[in-house]
Amino acid sequence: MPDLGKYAEAVLSSYAVSIALIAGLIVVSVLRANRVSKQLQEIENKVKSNG
Amino acid sequence: MNLNALWEYANPKKFIQTTDRVLPWVAGLAALSLVFGLIWGFFFTPEDYRQGSTVKIIYLHVPSALMAINAWMMMLVTSLVWIVRRHHVSALAARAAAPVGMVMTVIALITGAIWGQPMWGTWWAWDPRLTSFLILFLFYLGYIALWEAIENDDTAADLTSILCLVGSVFALLSRYAVNFWNQGLHQGASLSLDKEENVADVFWYPLLVCIAGFALLFIALVLLRTRTEIRARRMRVLLARERMGA
To answer: Do A14 and B224 touch (CB under 8 A)?
Structure first.
């Protein structure tokens, strides 16, 4: 860990907030992609079975 | 290269097939360059003689601010394609990019405030660049809200495209505010084609890697989210057909 001196709080909080926001965006995007893909598959199967 | 071949990707099926192959590579490269760039910048670069260790915030602040503006520019191009050629994939790509651009704007604003406090003695100032970035954030919010508020996809795409055209003025202002108005607290551009105006090489190289990482992350997320929007749209069409049939 580098010595960040008196600005340690500012530097570490910048990295923490940014990484949390990026991780949150990735998680939300992947979860929604999986959910929508699954829902579409179900609807397409239903449409096919109804002819 | 035949530019007309590009329009093939406006076909939703072709877009999904192509991104099936491309997305894992882009996502992998994004992860690799982000991890490498941030570790390099955080652990292996020195302090700045004036700004101390706060200079390490540059590896988050500059790439996120760049992507915040470039995301809106990408939305502008895809919105224009929608207005002119009526390709649904382009309108959906703009919709998919907006939340990513908004998060980049939030990161730029927050890291800027955290960096500004020890350097300027204040979290916020009504400086031209800061203010235009705040307005850009509000445009992102409005753009996303407008998509959610309108049920008909084509009407939503029309109206959000117009909003995107108007917001482009602020996206450009955010980029060039420091050049237009020679006032305020924000320093000049950190990146320039003129080597003399750039930050020192020891900060510049890891910064370039981080910028590449943020750009690749943006592309990966937009591809993933566009695929989701295409599927969500197909789902709405199928449900509407089913309702009409019943």
So the answer is: no
